């Protein structure tokens, strides 16, 4: 019985869509972009059940280089995300701020996070 549960968890993990977005921002828009991205990520995780994680960081040595780690329940959840009002607002509102964008499809090896680190901010 334990194997069935484990196999099910592995199957679910295999359905997840995981990717990294590497973004370079024009320096003049950096603060505005970071605020827009933070708002978008918070909203997406809060209101979309299929958005499992959106984590964004910037390079301290080169702050215009932003990396976003994205985890969706599956391809359908990702496609639904692309149609949401908050994503379209983020995308259209930041278009002029983005110098370059590279989307990299990745496969998980280990994705661990302590539950205590997950905050419930409303």
TrEMBL record:
Keyword Oxidoreductase: yes
Residue span(s) of domain ABM: 17-107
UniProt GO molecular function: monooxygenase activity
SUPFAM superfamilies attached to this UniProt entry: Dimeric alpha+beta barrel
A Pfam family that the UniProt record links to this protein: ABM
Keyword annotations of the record: Monooxygenase, Oxidoreductase
Protein name stated in the entry: Antibiotic biosynthesis monooxygenase
């Amino acid at each position: 019985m334990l194997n069935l549960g484990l196999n099910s968890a592995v199957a679910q993990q295999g359905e997840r869509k995981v990717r990294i977005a590497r973004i370079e921002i024009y320096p003049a828009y950096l603060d505005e972009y970071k605020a827009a991205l933070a708002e978008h990520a918070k909203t997406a995780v809060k209101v979309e059940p299929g958005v499992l994680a959106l984590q964004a960081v910037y390079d301290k040595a080169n702050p215009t280089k932003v990396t976003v780690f994205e985890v969706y329940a599956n391809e359908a959840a990702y496609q639904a995300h692309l149609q949401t009002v908050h994503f379209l607002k983020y995308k259209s509102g930041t278009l002029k701020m983005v110098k370059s964008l590279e989307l990299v499809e990745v496969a998980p090896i280990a994705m661990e996070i302590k539950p205590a680190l997950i905050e419930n901010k409303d």
